[in-house]
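sorry to bug you again but im stuck and you know this stuff better than me. below you get a single protein, a line of residues and a line of whole numbers that encode the local backbone shape. mainly i need to know what kind of three dimensional shape the backbone takes. anything you notice is useful, everything is just below:

***
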Amino acid sequence: MASYNARMIPDKTPAHANPRSARQLLRAHRYGALGTLSQKFDGHPFTSITPYLVDFDGSVLILISGLAEHTKNILNDSRASLVSHNQADPRIQTQGRVTLVGHAAHQPDRADCAKRYLRYFAETRNWYELPDFNFYRITPLAIRYIGGFGDIHWIGNENYLLQRYPLMQQEDSLIEELNLHPALQKRGAMLIGVDCDGYDLVVNGAVVRHEFAELTLDAAAARAAILAE
């Protein structure tokens, strides 16, 4: 596996300036274009559409079939990229978007991955129950972040990826607690996920993303922020 080299992606912007914005933009969307290197066509770029979930640390989880071309490509060469943007916005050249460049690896902890993934993509449960479908994690080497016209940056993985934080272990109990709270019940919302950058509610069948004002690393701070809205 190739390693990230900071000299490959020079940027005049301070290293700390854009990683959270890039994670927030990537977390705000649920589908992206997955780029792999074609085994069938001798490394030619091959692109497909896939649902994805940004995990706690900023890496991306995808659930894909062993019969799919992109899976065969990944098993032959782990290099992959994923780009996501707001598909509802026609101003494609001026809106924000993120391209994650990294390596995809099969995740043997299938049940652990499914617990969180299926909260976001309940409609894929039938796929998950087929033994041919498995989880792969794309861990970035670098991120290409475009916040808008002229707001373009490379971000290295050492600035983008997050180390372990308490909320990773506290999410399940926090979700269980808050889904019984009158404040969320009054809003007609169901909490499905909480991470350091924000949280996701299902409202009228649609997933709605809410961002925290600042990095939030534990359940107490997340609870206070969610109930304050």
